[in-house]
Protein backbone atom coordinates (compact mmCIF):
# COMPACT_ATOMS: atom_id res chain seq x y z
CA UNK A 1 0.00 0.00 0.00
CA UNK A 2 2.85 2.36 0.81
CA UNK A 3 4.42 1.73 -2.60
CA UNK A 4 1.08 2.33 -4.30
CA UNK A 5 0.57 5.60 -2.45
CA UNK A 6 4.11 6.71 -3.30
CA UNK A 7 3.53 5.97 -6.97
CA UNK A 8 0.19 7.79 -6.88
CA UNK A 9 1.81 10.84 -5.30
CA UNK A 10 4.54 10.87 -7.93
CA UNK A 11 1.94 10.55 -10.71
CA UNK A 12 -0.07 13.44 -9.27
CA UNK A 13 2.99 15.62 -8.98
CA UNK A 14 4.07 14.70 -12.49
CA UNK A 15 0.74 15.97 -13.78
CA UNK A 16 1.32 19.27 -11.99
CA UNK A 17 4.93 19.73 -13.01
CA UNK A 18 5.98 22.63 -15.15
CA UNK A 19 9.01 22.73 -17.39
CA UNK A 20 11.97 23.84 -15.30
CA UNK A 21 14.13 26.52 -16.87
CA UNK A 22 17.71 27.34 -15.95
CA UNK A 23 18.28 31.06 -15.58
CA UNK A 24 21.48 33.09 -15.64
CA UNK A 25 22.65 34.82 -12.46
CA UNK A 26 23.60 38.49 -12.38
CA UNK A 27 27.25 37.56 -12.98
CA UNK A 28 26.34 35.54 -16.06
CA UNK A 29 26.73 32.10 -14.48
CA UNK A 30 24.00 29.55 -15.07
CA UNK A 31 21.82 28.87 -12.02
CA UNK A 32 21.07 25.21 -11.32
CA UNK A 33 18.69 24.31 -8.49
CA UNK A 34 19.69 20.99 -6.92
CA UNK A 35 17.81 18.86 -4.38
CA UNK A 36 20.01 16.96 -1.96
CA UNK A 37 20.17 15.42 1.52
CA UNK A 38 22.88 15.20 4.23
CA UNK A 39 24.30 11.98 2.83
CA UNK A 40 28.06 11.72 2.37
CA UNK A 41 27.56 10.03 -0.99
CA UNK A 42 26.47 13.40 -2.37
CA UNK A 43 29.49 15.11 -0.79
CA UNK A 44 31.53 15.78 -3.93
CA UNK A 45 29.04 18.51 -4.85
CA UNK A 46 30.23 20.43 -1.78
CA UNK A 47 33.81 19.99 -2.94
CA UNK A 48 32.83 21.39 -6.34
CA UNK A 49 31.38 24.43 -4.58
CA UNK A 50 34.26 24.95 -2.14
CA UNK A 51 37.03 24.43 -4.69
CA UNK A 52 35.46 26.83 -7.18
CA UNK A 53 34.81 24.08 -9.72
CA UNK A 54 31.22 25.22 -10.27
CA UNK A 55 32.32 28.81 -10.77
CA UNK A 56 35.01 27.77 -13.26
CA UNK A 57 32.36 25.84 -15.20
CA UNK A 58 30.09 28.88 -15.35
CA UNK A 59 27.61 27.42 -12.87
CA UNK A 60 25.87 28.77 -9.79
CA UNK A 61 24.49 25.67 -8.07
CA UNK A 62 21.85 26.26 -5.41
CA UNK A 63 21.82 23.15 -3.22
CA UNK A 64 18.63 22.77 -1.18
CA UNK A 65 18.92 20.16 1.55
CA UNK A 66 15.92 18.03 2.54
CA UNK A 67 15.51 15.55 5.39
CA UNK A 68 13.70 12.78 3.53
CA UNK A 69 13.35 11.21 0.10
CA UNK A 70 9.71 12.23 -0.24
CA UNK A 71 10.60 15.92 0.01
CA UNK A 72 13.36 15.57 -2.59
CA UNK A 73 11.03 13.76 -4.97
CA UNK A 74 8.27 16.33 -4.54
CA UNK A 75 10.62 19.26 -5.13
CA UNK A 76 12.04 17.70 -8.28
CA UNK A 77 8.81 16.47 -9.83
CA UNK A 78 7.00 19.77 -9.17
CA UNK A 79 9.77 21.69 -10.96
CA UNK A 80 10.97 23.54 -7.86
CA UNK A 81 14.46 22.17 -8.51
CA UNK A 82 16.18 21.32 -11.78
CA UNK A 83 18.17 18.23 -10.78
CA UNK A 84 17.99 15.81 -7.87
CA UNK A 85 20.24 13.35 -6.06
CA UNK A 86 18.21 10.17 -5.57
CA UNK A 87 18.60 6.46 -4.98
CA UNK A 88 18.65 4.32 -8.12
CA UNK A 89 15.37 2.62 -7.25
CA UNK A 90 13.74 6.04 -6.79
CA UNK A 91 14.60 6.94 -10.38
CA UNK A 92 12.93 3.67 -11.42
CA UNK A 93 9.84 4.52 -9.40
CA UNK A 94 9.62 7.90 -11.10
CA UNK A 95 9.84 6.31 -14.53
CA UNK A 96 7.20 3.74 -13.61
CA UNK A 97 4.89 6.61 -12.64
CA UNK A 98 5.39 8.27 -16.03
CA UNK A 99 7.84 11.00 -15.03
CA UNK A 100 10.08 11.73 -18.06
CA UNK A 101 13.58 11.67 -16.54
CA UNK A 102 17.07 10.39 -17.20
CA UNK A 103 19.92 9.21 -15.01
CA UNK A 104 22.94 11.20 -16.20
CA UNK A 105 25.50 10.30 -13.52
CA UNK A 106 26.36 7.51 -11.07
CA UNK A 107 27.31 9.11 -7.77
CA UNK A 108 28.07 6.37 -5.30
CA UNK A 109 27.52 2.81 -4.14
CA UNK A 110 27.14 2.13 -0.45
CA UNK A 111 28.79 -0.90 1.13
CA UNK A 112 28.79 -0.43 4.91
CA UNK A 113 27.37 3.10 4.97
CA UNK A 114 23.78 1.83 4.97
CA UNK A 115 22.99 -0.57 7.78
CA UNK A 116 20.62 -2.05 10.32
CA UNK A 117 21.82 -1.28 13.83
CA UNK A 118 20.66 -2.93 17.04
CA UNK A 119 21.73 -3.40 20.68
CA UNK A 120 23.47 -6.39 22.17
CA UNK A 121 21.06 -9.27 22.47
CA UNK A 122 19.91 -8.94 18.88
CA UNK A 123 22.59 -10.92 17.11
CA UNK A 124 20.89 -11.90 13.86
CA UNK A 125 18.10 -10.80 11.55
CA UNK A 126 16.03 -13.68 12.92
CA UNK A 127 16.19 -11.98 16.32
CA UNK A 128 14.17 -9.08 14.88
CA UNK A 129 11.02 -11.23 14.88
CA UNK A 130 8.33 -9.37 16.79
CA UNK A 131 10.65 -6.40 17.39
CA UNK A 132 10.00 -2.73 16.58
CA UNK A 133 12.19 -1.63 13.67
CA UNK A 134 12.46 2.02 12.58
CA UNK A 135 13.02 2.68 8.87
CA UNK A 136 12.00 5.10 6.13
CA UNK A 137 9.48 3.48 3.84
CA UNK A 138 10.03 3.50 0.10
CA UNK A 139 13.72 4.38 0.46
CA UNK A 140 17.07 2.60 0.42
CA UNK A 141 16.44 1.70 4.07
CA UNK A 142 13.26 -0.09 3.00
CA UNK A 143 15.19 -1.88 0.26
CA UNK A 144 17.94 -2.99 2.63
CA UNK A 145 15.54 -4.17 5.34
CA UNK A 146 13.45 -6.18 2.90
CA UNK A 147 16.53 -7.81 1.43
CA UNK A 148 17.87 -8.69 4.89
CA UNK A 149 14.54 -10.17 5.96
CA UNK A 150 14.16 -12.16 2.74
CA UNK A 151 17.70 -13.47 3.13
CA UNK A 152 16.69 -14.74 6.58
CA UNK A 153 13.46 -16.28 5.30
CA UNK A 154 11.32 -13.54 6.82
CA UNK A 155 9.05 -10.71 5.67
CA UNK A 156 7.90 -7.36 7.04
CA UNK A 157 5.00 -9.22 8.64
CA UNK A 158 7.49 -10.81 11.05
CA UNK A 159 8.50 -7.45 12.56
CA UNK A 160 6.73 -4.39 13.92
CA UNK A 161 7.38 -1.66 11.35
CA UNK A 162 7.89 1.86 12.75
CA UNK A 163 7.99 4.34 9.83
CA UNK A 164 10.16 7.45 10.22
CA UNK A 165 12.90 9.39 8.44
CA UNK A 166 16.31 7.75 8.42
CA UNK A 167 17.61 10.85 10.19
CA UNK A 168 15.37 10.06 13.17
CA UNK A 169 15.68 6.27 13.26
CA UNK A 170 18.98 6.20 15.16
CA UNK A 171 17.69 8.72 17.69
CA UNK A 172 14.62 6.57 18.29
CA UNK A 173 16.85 3.56 18.87
CA UNK A 174 19.08 5.38 21.35
CA UNK A 175 16.00 6.61 23.18
CA UNK A 176 14.62 3.10 23.50
CA UNK A 177 11.59 3.83 21.34
CA UNK A 178 12.43 0.97 18.96
CA UNK A 179 14.46 -2.24 19.07
CA UNK A 180 16.44 -1.68 15.86
CA UNK A 181 16.92 1.00 13.22
CA UNK A 182 17.75 1.09 9.53
CA UNK A 183 19.69 4.21 8.56
CA UNK A 184 22.77 5.52 6.79
CA UNK A 185 25.85 7.62 7.45
CA UNK A 186 26.47 9.90 9.23
CA UNK A 187 23.58 8.73 11.41
CA UNK A 188 25.07 5.25 11.92
CA UNK A 189 28.30 6.55 13.42
CA UNK A 190 26.39 9.12 15.50
CA UNK A 191 24.25 6.38 17.05
CA UNK A 192 27.19 4.06 17.69
CA UNK A 193 29.12 6.87 19.35
CA UNK A 194 26.15 7.75 21.59
CA UNK A 195 25.48 4.21 22.78
CA UNK A 196 28.30 1.69 23.15
CA UNK A 197 25.73 -1.11 23.41
CA UNK A 198 24.76 -0.66 19.75
CA UNK A 199 26.35 -2.46 16.82
CA UNK A 200 25.86 -3.11 13.12
CA UNK A 201 23.57 -6.06 12.53
CA UNK A 202 23.44 -6.02 8.72
CA UNK A 203 24.92 -3.74 6.07
CA UNK A 204 24.69 -3.11 2.33
CA UNK A 205 27.99 -4.88 1.63
CA UNK A 206 26.07 -8.17 1.80
CA UNK A 207 24.88 -7.39 -1.73
CA UNK A 208 27.21 -4.84 -3.38
CA UNK A 209 25.37 -2.49 -5.73
CA UNK A 210 22.01 -2.80 -3.99
CA UNK A 211 22.27 0.69 -2.47
CA UNK A 212 23.40 3.28 -5.01
CA UNK A 213 22.70 6.90 -5.88
CA UNK A 214 22.38 8.80 -9.12
CA UNK A 215 21.72 12.28 -10.48
CA UNK A 216 18.40 12.62 -12.31
CA UNK A 217 17.31 15.35 -14.73
CA UNK A 218 14.02 15.84 -16.57
CA UNK A 219 13.94 15.15 -20.29
CA UNK A 220 12.81 18.73 -20.90
CA UNK A 221 15.73 20.22 -18.98
CA UNK A 222 18.20 18.06 -20.89
CA UNK A 223 16.70 19.13 -24.21
CA UNK A 224 16.73 22.82 -23.29
CA UNK A 225 20.02 23.02 -21.36
CA UNK A 226 22.42 20.27 -22.48
CA UNK A 227 25.47 22.48 -21.94
CA UNK A 228 24.42 23.12 -18.35
CA UNK A 229 24.06 19.40 -17.64
CA UNK A 230 27.41 18.74 -19.30
CA UNK A 231 29.07 21.34 -17.09
CA UNK A 232 27.43 19.86 -13.99
CA UNK A 233 28.44 16.28 -14.79
CA UNK A 234 31.99 17.38 -15.61
CA UNK A 235 32.12 19.28 -12.30
CA UNK A 236 31.39 16.03 -10.44
CA UNK A 237 34.33 14.38 -12.18
CA UNK A 238 36.66 17.24 -11.30
CA UNK A 239 35.44 17.20 -7.70
CA UNK A 240 36.24 13.49 -7.46
CA UNK A 241 39.70 14.17 -8.91
CA UNK A 242 40.19 16.71 -6.12
CA UNK A 243 38.89 14.27 -3.50
CA UNK A 244 41.16 11.46 -4.67
CA UNK A 245 44.17 13.78 -4.77
CA UNK A 246 43.68 14.92 -1.16
CA UNK A 247 41.19 12.74 0.72
CA UNK A 248 41.67 14.38 4.14
CA UNK A 249 40.81 17.80 2.71
CA UNK A 250 37.89 16.43 0.71
CA UNK A 251 36.48 14.53 3.66
CA UNK A 252 36.77 17.62 5.85
CA UNK A 253 34.67 19.61 3.36
CA UNK A 254 32.01 16.89 3.15
CA UNK A 255 31.90 16.28 6.92
CA UNK A 256 31.47 19.98 7.57
CA UNK A 257 28.64 20.14 5.03
CA UNK A 258 26.72 17.30 6.71
CA UNK A 259 27.42 18.70 10.18
CA UNK A 260 29.83 16.05 11.45
CA UNK A 261 33.50 15.69 12.37
CA UNK A 262 35.69 14.22 9.63
CA UNK A 263 37.62 11.98 12.05
CA UNK A 264 34.39 10.53 13.43
CA UNK A 265 33.25 9.72 9.89
CA UNK A 266 36.42 7.94 8.83
CA UNK A 267 34.81 4.49 8.75
CA UNK A 268 31.70 5.97 7.18
CA UNK A 269 33.70 7.26 4.22
CA UNK A 270 35.34 3.86 3.90
CA UNK A 271 31.86 2.39 3.41
CA UNK A 272 31.10 4.51 0.32
CA UNK A 273 32.48 4.03 -3.19
CA UNK A 274 32.39 7.26 -5.20
CA UNK A 275 32.21 7.01 -9.00
CA UNK A 276 34.60 9.36 -10.77
CA UNK A 277 34.48 10.54 -14.36
CA UNK A 278 36.31 7.57 -15.86
CA UNK A 279 34.17 5.04 -13.98
CA UNK A 280 31.01 6.81 -15.09
CA UNK A 281 32.14 6.82 -18.70
CA UNK A 282 32.83 3.08 -18.55
CA UNK A 283 29.91 1.89 -16.44
CA UNK A 284 26.81 4.10 -16.69
CA UNK A 285 25.89 2.62 -20.06
CA UNK A 286 27.70 -0.65 -19.31
CA UNK A 287 27.92 -2.73 -16.14
CA UNK A 288 25.86 -0.34 -14.03
CA UNK A 289 23.02 -0.46 -16.55
CA UNK A 290 23.31 -4.17 -17.35
CA UNK A 291 24.22 -5.63 -13.95
CA UNK A 292 23.65 -3.28 -11.01
CA UNK A 293 20.35 -1.75 -12.12
CA UNK A 294 18.62 -5.11 -12.78
CA UNK A 295 19.71 -6.16 -9.28
CA UNK A 296 18.17 -3.02 -7.78
CA UNK A 297 15.00 -3.46 -9.84
CA UNK A 298 14.54 -7.03 -8.68
CA UNK A 299 15.06 -6.11 -5.03
CA UNK A 300 12.64 -3.17 -5.29
CA UNK A 301 10.02 -5.37 -6.92
CA UNK A 302 10.44 -8.02 -4.22
CA UNK A 303 10.03 -5.33 -1.56
CA UNK A 304 6.84 -4.07 -3.21
CA UNK A 305 8.38 -0.64 -3.82
CA UNK A 306 8.22 -1.15 -7.58
CA UNK A 307 4.92 -2.66 -8.64
CA UNK A 308 5.71 -3.20 -12.30
CA UNK A 309 8.55 -3.30 -14.79
CA UNK A 310 10.72 -0.41 -15.95
CA UNK A 311 12.73 0.10 -19.12
CA UNK A 312 16.24 0.51 -17.75
CA UNK A 313 17.88 1.43 -21.04
CA UNK A 314 15.35 4.25 -21.52
CA UNK A 315 16.16 5.54 -18.04
CA UNK A 316 19.86 6.14 -18.68
CA UNK A 317 21.47 8.90 -20.74
CA UNK A 318 25.26 8.29 -20.86
CA UNK A 319 26.10 11.06 -23.35
CA UNK A 320 27.33 13.50 -20.69
CA UNK A 321 29.65 11.09 -18.88
CA UNK A 322 30.93 9.92 -22.25
CA UNK A 323 32.06 13.50 -22.89
Automatic annotation (TrEMBL):
Superkingdom of source: Bacteria
Tell me which positions the record assigns to the signal sequence. 1-21
Which lineage ranks, top first, belong to the organism behind this chain?
Bacteria, Bacillati, Actinomycetota, Actinomycetes, Micrococcales
GO CC terms on record?
periplasmic space
InterPro entries linked to this entry: SsuA/THI5
Q: Origin organism of this chain? A: Cryobacterium luteum
This chain's protein is named: Transporter substrate-binding domain-containing protein
> What family does this chain come from, according to its entry?
Belongs to the bacterial solute-binding protein SsuA/TauA family.
Q: Which UniProt key words apply to this protein?
A: Signal
Localization (cell): Periplasm
Q: Which residues form a coiled coil?
A: none
Domain SsuA/THI5-like span(s) in chain numbering: 43-234
Amino acid sequence: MVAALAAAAITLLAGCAGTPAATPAADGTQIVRMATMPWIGYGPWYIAETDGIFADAGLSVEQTEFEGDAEVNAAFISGNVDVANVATHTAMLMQQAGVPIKIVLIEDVSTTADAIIAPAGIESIADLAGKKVAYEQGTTSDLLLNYALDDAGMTLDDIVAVPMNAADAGVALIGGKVDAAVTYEPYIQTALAEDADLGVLFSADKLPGLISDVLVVSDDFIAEHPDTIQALVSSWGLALDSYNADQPAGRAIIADAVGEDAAALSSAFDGVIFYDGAQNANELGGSFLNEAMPLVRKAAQSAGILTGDVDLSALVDPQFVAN
